[in-house]
Amino acid sequence: xxxxxxxxxxxxxxxxxxxxxxxxxxxxxxxxxxxxxxxxxxxxxxxxxxxxxxxxxxxxxxxxxxxxxxxxxxxxxxxxxxxxxxxxxxxxxxxxxxxxxxxxxxxxxxxxxxxxxxxxxxxxxxxxxxxxxxxxxxxxxxxxxxxxxxxxxxxxxxxxxxxxxxxxxxxxxxxxxxxxxxxxxxxxxxxxxxxxxxxxxxxxxxxxxxxxxxxxxxxxxxxxxxxxxxxxxxxxxxxxxxxxxxxxxxxxxxxxxxxxxxxxxxxxxxxxxxxxxxxxxxxxxxxxxxxxxxxxxxxxxxxxxxxxxxxxxxxxxxxxxxxxxxxx
Length: 328
Prior knowledge:
By secondary structure, this protein is an alpha/beta fold. Helix content is about 40%, strand content about 10%.
């Protein structure tokens, strides 16, 4: 896989490893505790209970990062799609962004998304001068990718480094930004909607074996619950026998064939001009056609902006809707 494609997923793996080592970020987000265990190692059913969110000018997130603002932020620049996701859930839009997730019809749609200024430099190297030209009250970026910008932003704005490793982390960030913006009702409503959707998906858990693969060419990767927020939902709604093999480890088509995958979700990662679907490239391998999901027409190309990069409650809601429909 090209180095850039690997890097897009590498920060997700690092995020989870950091969360596991820190031992934080999940307990506070699920106050309801265990309910019904669906079996097969899927864990307890997700609670639909939502604790009240209180407005605040200072929060400390689940990773121990403290954000303090003199007043609720109105101009927010998003350097990571999780930020865009949360703002849309709260009824807001970013002042500027470097994500394409807003163009999805479940977000703003292409026309409205095109009105949001784009931060030049791309995801990996957003330009500091361009960020500051928008005079933001708050800049939200990924810690291990955009943390290097913090010194240049200091004194001019507030930088909030986030590092989601699970859906519980994503809910925590939603609640924190709802508190900071004073949009507590919207935050509670968004969390409730997501929890309800996940609980319903758990109740109708599929016995089918699912798999998410990603890549930009025939060298693909497998999304695992330990390294991918969306994949972390799948053991709750299907059979998902895929475990992380570290940052550079992956699975072969031979191993995938042996697992009798019933439904296969494909994320084509595009860098620059579109270069065709990953599933079409994988089809060149003779083993591909022997996978049950391929034989039975259950290969679904999904929007990687939502599935791979969104990671907020709105994106994960889309993932649940599309996944449960395909797994029936």
